[in-house]
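Appendix B: a complete holo record

For completeness, this appendix reproduces one full record from the ligand-bound portion of the collection. The bound molecule is flavin-adenine dinucleotide. The inputs are the chain sequence and the ligand SMILES; the output is the full three-dimensional arrangement of the complex, encoded as structure tokens. No fields have been trimmed.
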Amino acid sequence: MIMKTRNVEYAIIGAGTSGLGAYATISRETDSLVMIQDGPYGTTCARVGCMPSKLLITAADYAHHLHTSDCFGVPASGQVDGRRVLERLRRERDHRFVARNLGYVDKIPAHHKLEGRARFIGPGRLMVGESVEVRAEKIILACGSRPAIGAVFEPVMSRVLTSDTIFELEDLPRSVAVIGMGVIALELGQALHRLGVKTTLYGRSGRINALTHPTMQRRALDLLAGELDIHPSGRVLSTWEDAEGAWIEYESSNGQRITRVFERVLVATGRESNLDRLGLEQAGVDVSESGAVRFDPQTMRCGDLPLFIAGDATDDLPVWHEAYDEGRIAAGNALSYPDSTPAVRRTPLMVFFTDPQIAVIGQSFRQLQGREIVIGELPFTSPRHVVWNKVQGHIQVYLDAHTGTILGAELLGHQAEHLAHLLALAITHGMTAEQVLAMPVYHPSAEELLRDVLIDAQKKRRRHEAEKESLSLSP
Ligand SMILES: Cc1cc2nc3c(=O)[nH]c(=O)nc-3n(C[C@H](O)[C@H](O)[C@H](O)COP(=O)(O)OP(=O)(O)OC[C@H]3O[C@@H](n4cnc5c(N)ncnc54)[C@H](O)[C@@H]3O)c2cc1C
Ligand SMILES: NC(=O)c1ccc[n+]([C@@H]2O[C@H](COP(=O)([O-])OP(=O)(O)OC[C@H]3O[C@@H](n4cnc5c(N)ncnc54)[C@H](O)[C@@H]3O)[C@@H](O)[C@H]2O)c1
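The structure of the chain with flavin-adenine dinucleotide bound, as generated:
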């Protein structure tokens, strides 16, 4: 029974990072808007995503030092107190990151907020919960995503963890099977291992997908498998539970069957968009068989409709800075509807906070197939890395063979995030290797590695040019 109808110009579904980005833009221009939020405020990033995961990883880094500082003449002793690790994680998360977000939401006028799950009951018509209808001229779908859990895990659901639940544990489990080899599986799996949890990772494809050059993929897998118990390719055949725990029966791609029991199972097999719960067909939206909605990534508009999409709801670029940008792009184009202004999207940047870190910037090796490029590459080592005793990894930088413009890079190494940001800056400004090499580089710093890899790329480019010239001169 509809008890109340609200008429607004703009409705935003979801008060996560992208929804708040949209809200910030629209609320500057009009009072006729409502942001609808199902579940707790605070955003996925702060509550169950970026921030708690990085807090766990940092605790794990400290635990790792206990085993690695001896070579510096600093033997360390001590043990992990799982309860304290998790208590601190929640304290920091709640008091710093979530509280900051809630403080922002608190300041939003009450008539701009509506709590409940929204679903379409017609074009421009949303039902929120069971009693409020919202009629909006323009609607932004900023409803995010949720962990995907395959049916094979149903028999062990009481022991299944996802990134939504793991940070609420009272104590660390004794053992955990991590399903997946994506960013969540690797970040959390390595952290749990370093915190003393007996951890086994079960992958499917045998690849770490973010890296696309075969050398980078192989090295990343070799390095991580050197520390972690990983079965990279195969599939989980079945699961069951008994008094001992959750059993996982897994078949490796070589046909070997492995059956083991764990206290917990962390399912990190990707996320699925919450769009499927919106009843989009009622809004006249063309939804593909996979549940995806077609949209223009430069305007975030869905076809010609007064509907816009932003953030993880899209499956595309599911990272924080893109979610925020997309919220603002969607809002800007909702404000100017039916006119639209295509946004210039940022240079792609992805960082895995593993150790060593993995980063992909600009165009990946795979995306550059068919283009004439040279690859500068080196082990991830500079004098500074030697000082840190962190010399594992590899760096590849892709240059346009003709112009020397930096097009992309794939990195695997200690603190790769910082070189990744420098490379992102260079790519954003269309810089050539030569231009980047004109900047000062302090000694000894990790940035010396960037200088050296660009010198390597330049040498290869000169060789490439010389070879082409001699080919063109040969009769
Ligand atoms: C474990 C983990 C670690 C991560 N680490 C990083 C990282 O280090 N760096 C990084 O850049 N990114 C990271 N991310 C990704 C980042 O958190 C997301 O890209 C970002 O939070 C997406 O924001 P969003 O607004 O699209 O979704 P959300 O913040 O999830 O917001 C969507 C909101 O919509 C609500 N909603 C859904 N359906 C409805 C409905 N029908 N009606 C009303 N409300 C609805 C949801 O409850 C939710 O609150 C991580 C993600 C995870 C899960
Ligand atoms: N550092 C970061 O920026 C960061 C950290 C965490 C999460 N995130 C975001 O969260 C999103 C979701 O992360 P994710 O790791 O869940 O997804 P993902 O898509 O990165 O990885 C999912 C992995 O699970 C594997 N998989 C799928 N089904 C499987 C099965 N049945 N058995 C075994 N393996 C299976 C896939 O092959 C893939 O390797 C990411 O796309 C990312 O953008 C970002």
